[in-house]
Amino acid sequence: MQEGQSQDRGKGVWWSQMRCWSVAAISITLLSICFIVSCVVTYNFTYGKNDQKLSQLHTYHSSLTCSSEGTRVTVWGCCPSTWKPFDSSCYFISTKKENWAKHEQNCVGMGGHLVVINTEAEQNFIIHHLNESFPYFLGLTDPQGKNKWQWIDQTPYKENVRFWHDREPNLSAEQCVSIVFWAPGKWGWNDVLCHLKMNSICEMKKIYI
Ligand code: CA
């Protein structure tokens, strides 16, 4: 009789242990499933977007050059291999002699726009890559000819980021802008007729992966 009772007690303990282990195993399985699902969702959200951007970029550019950026987390900033990287943008110097509208169309066709100069550092970087013998179109226009200058990407035309040559802009008919080197040794902006044919500079945002 006593032996039977102790056997029953033993079975009871065994069952309650089994229940605990089962609950633990089911919980761990559910947590693992949640973790895997969240990883997959995050991966698709983060990398799916970049893959999309990269494949779009590959429709215009066959090869990209990426460099590691960021101090705490390593990210890769990529530019088309024929473009020059600076800060968060890539720049392409076009030496085709075209008018302003054609250059803008070409830049857009490559996934960018005519260059927008946001800082003196950016202008200093750009002029480093230009030929002093030629002017280059910028993404700055005065569509009404009323001295109301507008950047192509709607960046505000700031007082402290203007690099006009002396006595420029000078003519209301000149509704586009070039950056040009004028003696005695200075790069600066000049308003010009939009139908003139000259070089240009395209800019696009880096792709981060
Ligand atoms: Ca002028």
What's the total count of β strands? Answer: 11
Uncertain ranges: 39-45
Number of helices: 3
Q: What is the percent of helical residues?
A: 25-40%
Question: Which helices and strands appear, and what pairs or packs with what?
Answer:
Elements: H1 2-60, E1 64-69, E2 75-80, E3 84-86, E4 89-98, H2 100-109, E5 113-114, H3 120-127, E6 136-141, E7 150-151, E8 176-182, E9 186-192, E10 198-205, E11 207-208
Parallel strand pairs: 6-10
Antiparallel strand pairs: 1-2, 2-11, 3-4, 4-10, 5-10, 6-7, 6-8, 8-9
The structure holds calcium ion.
Describe this structure in words.
With 209 residues, this protein is of the alpha+beta class. It is 37% helix and 28% strand. It has three helices and eleven strands. The chain has helices spanning 2-60, 100-109, 120-127; strands spanning 64-69, 75-80, 84-86, 89-98, 113-114, 136-141, 150-151, 176-182, 186-192, 198-205, 207-208. The strands form two sheets. Strands 3, 4, 5, 6, 7, 8, 9 and 10 form an eight-stranded mixed β-sheet that branches. A three-stranded antiparallel β-sheet has the order 1-2-11, covered by helices on one side. It is rod-shaped. 21% of the residues are buried. The model is unreliable at 39-45 (pLDDT under 50). It binds calcium ion (CA). Calcium ion (CA) binds next to strand 9.
